[in-house]
Amino acid sequence: MSYADLTLPKAVLFDWDNTLVDTMPLIVLSINQALTHFDMEPWTAEDVKKKTQLSARDSLPVLFGDRWQEALTIYRDFYHQNHLAHLKPFDEALPLLDLLAEGGVKIGLVSNKVGDTLRNEVLYLGWEDRFGAMIGSGDADKDKPHADPALLALSQLGVSPAQDVWFVGDATVDWDCAKNAGCLPVPIGFAHADAYTYRYAVESCGDLKKNVKKVRNAPWQ
Fold first, then answer.
1. Residue 74 sits in the same domain as residue 109
2. C-alpha 143 chain-centroid distance
């Protein structure tokens, strides 16, 4: 089934890290600051993709046990000192957002990054006007993969969850969050093999932009 079988969504929720912006190099550096502090082996980018899908408050206790808050401080201190300088939007990310806005689609962010940090990064890029909701870790009662942050974003957008709401993200927590909230999962990138099992998976923002142009009932048809 192709995107030509879909209608223009009434809303699209996006993950942030490694969906619209490439933050993987800095995430790898930051987590390795904490790992080496505790004499643990550093991770590769592939390790990070597989092991850090959950929010920090959910994943770090598993990794560091009772000392997870110390690890979190090390991670966040390094990340916050460097994150704006390393912030790099993916090619076609902004044109994709602009195309959706042109079609009257409401757009929101749902990230497992701490809410204030997420919003600071959006402000730094000057993209704040493009999102009607910006939900990060701690803004809802539970983080992804639970439905709560997606439902909170949709409530701020004034949209009910349905299959004509897309959730675009690069990780299984995004796709599970989409399903838990009753929305359509749209995997982006193929870092996780499960992405290939989804009907509307795309390779990049540019790929998604091309497919959005194929949907029915859009103003550019």
1. no
2. 12
Which position has the token pair 């990064």?
121
Q: How many domains does the chain have?
A: 2
Q: Write b or e for each residue in 47-86: b if 16 or more Cβ atoms lie within 10 A of its Cβ, otherwise e.
A: ebbeebbbbbbbbbeebbeeebeebbebbbebbeeebeeb
Q: What is the pLDDT of residues 74-89, one digit of tens each?
A: 888 888 888 788 889 9
pTM, two decimals, is: 0.86
User: Which single residue is written with the structure tokens 């995004």?
Assistant: 174
The C-alpha angle with vertex 163 and arms to 160 and 156, in degrees rounded to 5, equals: 25
Distance CA 24, CA 4 (A): 32
pLDDT surpasses 90 at 45:
no
Mean of all residue pLDDT scores within the chain: 91
Domain assignment present for residue 220? The answer is no
Q: Is residue 11 part of a domain?
A: yes
